[in-house]
Every structure is written in structure tokens, then in C-alpha cells.
């Protein structure tokens, strides 16, 4: 396993400590999971170690139960977004304000209610999946 030095954190940080883009999945096997709130795709281990860059309030890096609860292996399609602000796909997927990374086109599960509550507590919008 490759580990970043300096301890803690993940992804690239700018001077203000903000994450500039999400970790890119380092494998495309069955352990890939998508965040149920923002649809960011990473491996289970990446969520476990660094949480979701868009949804730090879900505390996935603090408790792996949160990784299991807030992500799913059940998703369809992946797109890689390097410039979400200018991407029509990102606007369509309503991820234009999320950080660049890999996202899935569709998840079929809803974020469990207790985590939807955490979104509300943090003034974060949650869009349930579109019904086919
Ligand atoms: Zn997320």
C-alpha cells in the first residue's frame, strides 16, 4: 500500500487547506464504492482512510460504519470530471460544485435517513436519486 507522508489528509491541498481534487480510484475492482450523497467514486479503502472530499461531515474516515452506510457498491457508470464548473455533464448530474474526481452516473440507493439528517444539520443539500 502506498501512503502519503505527513500523516492524515488526502488528495491535494492548496494554501488554504482546501482539497483541490478528489483521490482517483487506484483500482477498479469490486471494492469500488460511490458516495450516496455526492456520487464520488473511490475504493473502500480510500473512503475508509480519507473520507469523502465533498462530504467530510459524514465522518467516513472516523468510523467505517459510516463508509458502509454512506457509500454503495451498487452503481452504474463512471465519469471522470476534471473541471466540473464547465462540464455540462456535471451540471446535469448536479455535481458542478463538487471537486474534480471520478463520479458515477447513477446510484440506485438513497442515503439512509440518519445521514440525510446529518446533511440537514450541516446545511448541505441532498438530492435523492432520480427515479427511472
Ligand atoms: Zn460524498
Please tell me about this protein's structure.
This protein is an alpha+beta fold. It has one domain: Herpes Virus-1 (2-Layer Sandwich), CATH 3.30.40. It has helices at residues 44-50, 64-70, 88-92, 113-121, and strands at residues 12-13, 19-21, 32-35, 41-43, 71-72, 75-81, 101-107. It has a 3-stranded antiparallel β-sheet with strand order 4-3-5. Strands 1-2 form a two-stranded antiparallel ribbon. The radius of gyration is 14 Å and the shape is globular. The chain starts with 11 loop residues before the first strand and ends in an 11-residue tail after the last helix. The model is unreliable at 1-10 (pLDDT under 50). One of its GO terms (biological process) is transcription elongation-coupled chromatin remodeling. It is found in: Nucleus. Belongs to the SPT4 family. May regulate transcription elongation by RNA polymerase II. May enhance transcriptional pausing at sites proximal to the promoter, which may in turn facilitate the assembly of an elongation competent RNA polymerase II complex.
CATH architecture: 2-Layer Sandwich
Summing up helix and strand content along with how strands pair, one would put the structural category as: alpha+beta
Strand order of the largest sheet: 4-3-5
| Average of the residue pLDDT scores | 83
The separation of the N and C termini measures 39 Å
How many domains? The number is: 1
**Over all CA atoms, what is the radius of gyration?**
14 Å
Tell me the strand percentage band: 15-25%
- The fold-level CATH name is Herpes Virus-1
Order of helices and strands: EEEEHHEEHEH
The percent of residues in helical segments reads 10-25%
The shape, in one word, is: globular
By CATH reckoning, the class would read Alpha Beta
Task: List the total number of helices.
Answer: 4
Largest sheet: 3 strands, antiparallel
Bound molecules: zinc ion
Uncertain segments of ≥5 residues (pLDDT<50)? 1-10
Say how many strands there are: 7
